[in-house]
Amino acid sequence: MSNEWQYNTLKWLSRMTCKLSYSTILRIGATIGPMYSLFGKKQKERGIKNIMLGLSMNKQEATALIERLFKNMGRAAMEILYMPNLTKEFIYEHIEMRGTEHLDKALAEKRGVVILTAHVGNWEWMGAALAAHGYPSTTIVKKQPNAQFTRLMNEYREMVGLEVFARGGSEMIRAVKAMKQKKLLGFLADQDGGFQGVPVMFLGQDSSAVLGPATFAQKFKAPVVPVFTSRKENGHIVHILPPLYYEDTGNEEEDIYRLTEETVRVTEAFIREHPDEWLWFQHRWNTKIPEIVDIEHKLKVREAVHAKK
């Protein structure tokens, strides 16, 4: 049986949403967002536990924070449906760009730019803002469990000027091509690194970190520019931070680890500054340290890097 009706329903909801004012959809989102906790009790409990560990909060404080997160999630969900209204004029009015000089400098090196970002704030609108300001933006996206939602999201991403590479196909070939064309290549690098990752502490817990940003930086001698977004009244702020660089000391494993850990620390710092905008309940710590491939060797690499600091 075709699931085309799901796509059509989402499109209809989007059309209805786009008829409302921006301030109205924000109010609606803040109202419906907390309802998610009624259906996602496991996610809420996992989020509270992670907040308590990562921010050293008690349960009452962590519960209050995750309730604010649900409100922001509701706002972001409404904003996704509102994406057809993201004209350049709307973006310039509602999305503030800070630190563009860092991105301009990185692009001037003509090696392509690795964009380090995370599931914090409305990262979809962040990509739209970069594209609207003329930055040649590409992104590697993960397919969602619902194919029709993935279809809609990719349609809207391309609508606002993003070039999308979906995981599971020839995305690496296209990503390499994007770097060779001196474009921006975005990585949502706050996810679990799986068995092939490296051990890095993240928000108070042992974790497996992804190697993508550091690997591309090493391969193309490209800067890694952290770009995150946070919410402000009636809009967003895109924070573009100073670039990070792969330092070639002659020991590739240590150099890759060093840059990976730097990307984790920058991401962690931004989340701590905007704790009610990060998805605390995601499966960030699924992979246990002993499960990482060649873990004994990777732990020795970590020790060597730390010893040289």
UniProtKB/TrEMBL annotation:
InterPro entries: LipA_acyltrans. Keywords: Acyltransferase, Cell inner membrane, Cell membrane, Membrane, Transferase. It is found in: Cell inner membrane. GO terms for molecular function: acyltransferase activity. It comes from the Bacteria. Pfam families: Lip_A_acyltrans. This is Lysophospholipid acyltransferase family protein. It comes from Veillonella magna.
